[in-house]
Design goal:
The protein is mostly helical. It has 7 helices and no strands.
Length: 204
Amino acid sequence: MPTGYTHGVQDGKVTELNDFVIKCAGAMGACIMQRDDGLDAGIKFDEPSNCYSERILDAEASLLHYKSAGREEWVKEYEESIQRTRDMCEEALENKVLGKQRYQDMLDKVKLWNPPSPDHEGLKSFMIEQLENSISHDCDCTYYEDQLLTIGKQSPDDWFEETVSGLERDVVSCGKMHAEDVKRCTERNLWKTLLINSLRDCEL
């Protein structure tokens, strides 16, 4: 039975080595970024993602802002961040409580449901399992309750130092990730270039 890669060979649509090699190259690690492009996409060269450089620019801009801001300004931002965190936690808790009630309402209905035959018992068991798992995994409020208990415990000065340190770490870590991404793209593109050149010189 032909695979997605050999089907064209079987039906006679793929007769040239180059075409078959390019199609199969999509399964190799150097072409991993094309995994969703389909078998006939051909070889495309990679470009480094701009997400890391954008994150560096954002972090550097925030660092400049905090280091040039007066204490009164960033203390105000600290207080605003506390309120944002409190609002987010309260909303998340409300959603979890509401979600749990909805899951429980459906679970009660499923448990009262009488399957039409013994062959449908597995369906009922499956539905109960899904709902109980969702209640267990989706409805735990501990994280947000703990967050609400600790909000505002940190002093404004500690918050400022932690924020600046975090941004400085972001600049360094994103710089490393960008360098690694460039290296990976270079290596993949070299692999692809060597492959293409080998096919250009091939007489098969």
